[in-house]
Amino acid sequence: MKKVLVFLFIVLLMTVALPKVTITLWHAMSGSRLPAVEAIVNGFNATHPDIEVVAQFTGSYAETLTKAIAAYRANDQPHIVQVYEVGLQTMLDSGAIVPVYELAGPDFDWGDVIGPILEYYSVNGKLYSMPFNSSTAILYYNKDIFKAAGLDPNKPPTTFSELYEYGRKIVESGAAPGGISFGWPAWVFEQMHAYHAQFYANNENGRKAKATEVYFNKDFGIDVMAEWMKWAQDKVLVYGGREYSANQAFLSSQVAMLIQSTSSVGSIESKANFNVGTTFLPRIEGYPRGNSVIGGATLWVMKGHTQKEYEAIWEFLQYVMKTEVTMQWHKSTGYFPATNSAVKALLDEGWFVEHPNHLTAFLQILSGTRVPEAQGVRLGNFVAIRDVVDSAIEEALQYTGTNYKKEAKRILDNAAKKANTILEEYTMIYGK
Questions:
Q1: Domain range 17-135+295-357, its CATH number among 3.30.1640.10, 3.40.30.10, 3.40.1160.10, 3.40.190.10
Q2: Which sequence ranges form a coiled-coil region, renumbered to this chain (predicted)?
Q3: What is the spatial distance between Cα 277 and Cα 155, in angstroms, rounded to a whole number?
Q4: Cβ-contact 56, 27 below 8 angstroms
Q5: What is the pLDDT of residues 349-380, one digit of tens each?
Q6: 185-242: per-residue pLDDT in tens?
């Protein structure tokens, strides 16, 4: 009888489901990117019955960052939070995170992470957040409008001068009302500095020590802004908002070209009723060659959880980095495949041959010059500084005079003064 009871007890234990470890993930992926996030989470949950990842959309990048820090202070933080690249210094100084390298086992191959992504989020050679949706900026163009304007659709502009010339022809021919628009204009301004090997701030963009002064009001920044002001006056450049709103102007053929994140490749290709081309960012003649810089976001692990939860978190982060998972994420969105293994697999299956627009950003960032100026900018309260720069760009593009450089210098000097005050206040709190 005892044996029967013991057997029944064991069977009962086996049939009672063990409690799952629940992991919360806060993210900022909406629109066409939301189903791609859900596919990753659902795939993980299906293969890990003892863990449940609960993904929650928490607003824009800036809102998600702010909410996560506030939640930590209230002891109500998520396990994982997606933070965009401008939040890097804030997260490092927050006291709220566990670096991902501390969670990893000795066998995890960090060398498989794409070089520029690894460098951007590493401190003293150690990775602090897990790569997820990394991007950079590229030039999109409407091949049909190019043809209508008498331009070769297979020869997009490579320099600022060519872009201005093409834009004038497009507008004057009536092929489109405008030549070009930008997504994330302040980010494009940052990209231009990295792309031309120009520091955006002192202390090597805040990577050797905390930045205390911005450099975007120096000669290079003035040259870029003055060009944009000229373009805007001649209807070559059409202001398109601070984030993704410019995509609609491009998709509706109001402009022939768009500088935007590679993360928009998938949605633009699926929605466009014209032939979409992509190419590298245009260059200003006379400046050295740098590299485009990483954008997008990574996954940060928050403090204040149990060892069992951290083990579950690491399981999920490893899953995100699996070759087949990062391949599908790239295909669904256009964000970089985060590992060399995924790139090889995509090449082997012929994905890039069939989808060359997905390859453009990747070739651009790997063919640039690996210099400190293009490794990435770390600024205290970078979110507020980017807002200052966006406001400066908006003011500049409304200018109706002809002395572009003088006005560009005035506007950028004012913006730099505000940005330096933000940096000063930040270092008073967190130190240099």
A1: 3.40.190.10
A2: none
A3: 10
A4: yes
A5: 999 999 999 999 989 988 888 899 999 999 99
A6: 999 999 999 999 999 999 999 999 999 999 999 999 999 999 999 999 999 999 999 8
